[in-house]
Amino acid sequence: MTLKQTLAKLVSIDSVSSRSNSEIVAYLEKRCEAAGLKVRRFPYIDESGVEKFNLVAQTSVCDSTVQTSINDSPAEASATVELALVGHTDVVPYDPSWSEALHLTERDGKLYGRGACDTKAFIAAALTAIESVGLKKLKRPLALVFTADEEVGCLGAKRLVAARPFRPRYAIVGEPTSLQPMPAGKGYSLAEITVHGREAHSAYPAIGESANFRAARLISMIERIADKLKREEQAGFDPPYTSLNIGILKGGTAKNIIAGECYFTLEWRPIPNQKSDRVLERVKSAVEELQKQDPEFSCEINAARADESFETPADSPLVQLLEKTSGRQSGTVAFGTEAPQMISLGAEAVVFGPGDIRVAHRTGEFVPVDQLENCVEILKTAITQLCT
Ligand SMILES: [Zn+2]
């Protein structure tokens, strides 16, 4: 099957995150087995009761997976893989009136379809690369990793980390970067904060306590925290500091009731030099300070998400190899990827793939044919140089 036919097949399988990815996984399993890889499925049931699969296809499975004793940690029990090529099988939803969504269409050197760019192009390139590179000559293990639920919070990759199916030395995480190696990215954290007050008729303020006024005091302290964090810069990022945002704010129930509760979300995108809970610690200190002035001040902080930032050193052989073969200097990604999960499995990870993230997630998503073809050559070079 040609590269374009492979991408057309992948795009034709509807794999929007809300659906089961069983069909696309079954297809990838068949292709990988035909290429001589051993496949393992890692199933799970998502929040809505839908069955999802992560799929790992390896050139060889080390015997240590079978022979390890009961005392070994799961990490020690899993086999080392020299290079993992990682692509998520799910895509974001598409407008039903977009007729090309599941029918890959070529126009002016571009291939259009849902997932054509994010990230089925990378998967098609990876399949084509392993089929043409000659796996028999590889001395070190290679793995293809296909995950579920990336678009809804890297949930599949997080499950895979818990299962520890292998220890990758290097990982190329397929995302649209226009073939620019991205060895670093900001993290993503979210907290939901509920500030409590005491409801009362607004004509009698002495018997109530406004949750909205209390939240306003906390929020102005959070704004000062955000300003201070701007002084801690890390070059290569835009903006070069940890940014904060209060995206949702809801407080009170009526204009003449003193608000009993005020809820807001706080998200921040930490630079790699900072721990992901740095902001949370500062917010907690701010709450303690407010409690000194107002002993009844109370709030709940629910740390809803903490996806780590990542940074693979510039002298990593994988970074050097991708810079050389792509002819492009490394950059940084601003969007969430599965690189942190690969790093927690032990890899030096770089985000890399054909297509531009700015055209992903929208009607008319496409991948340029020349980038798709170049990606195959770059992956073949990476496989040959790292695994033989
Ligand atoms: Zn993606």
Quantity of strands, as a count: 19
Mean pLDDT: 94
Helical residue percent? 25-40%
Main sheet overview: 6 strands, mixed
Spell out which ligands are present.
zinc ion
Percent of residues in β-strands: 25-35%
Rg of Cα set: 24 Å
Shape: elongated
Main sheet strand line-up: 1-2-6-3-7-18
Specify the structural class. alpha+beta
Task: List low-confidence stretches.
Answer: 62-77
In sequence order, what are the helices and strands, one letter per element?
HHEEHHEEEHEHEEEEHEEEEHEEHEHEEH
List keywords for this structure.
single chain; 388 residues; alpha+beta; six-stranded mixed sheet; five-stranded antiparallel sheet; 11 helices; 32% helix; binds zinc ion
Summarize the structure.
With 388 residues, the protein is an alpha+beta fold. 32% of the residues lie in helices and 25% in strands.
Description:
- The chain has 388 residues and is an alpha+beta fold.
- Helices cover 32% and strands 25% of the residues.
- The chain has helices at 3-12, 22-34, 64-67, 74-77, 120-133, 155-163, 211-229, 278-293, 317-326, 339-344, 369-387, and strands at residues 38-45, 51-58, 79-88, 105-107, 110-112, 142-147, 166-173, 184-185, 188-196, 200-201, 243-245, 249-251, 257-258, 261-269, 298-307, 310-311, 332-333, 348-351, 366-368.
- A hairpin with a 5-residue loop joins β1 (38-45) and β2.
- The longest helix is centred in the middle third of the chain and has 19 residues, at 211-229.
- Bound molecules: zinc ion.
- Zinc ion (ZN) binds at residues 88, 118-119, 150, 175.
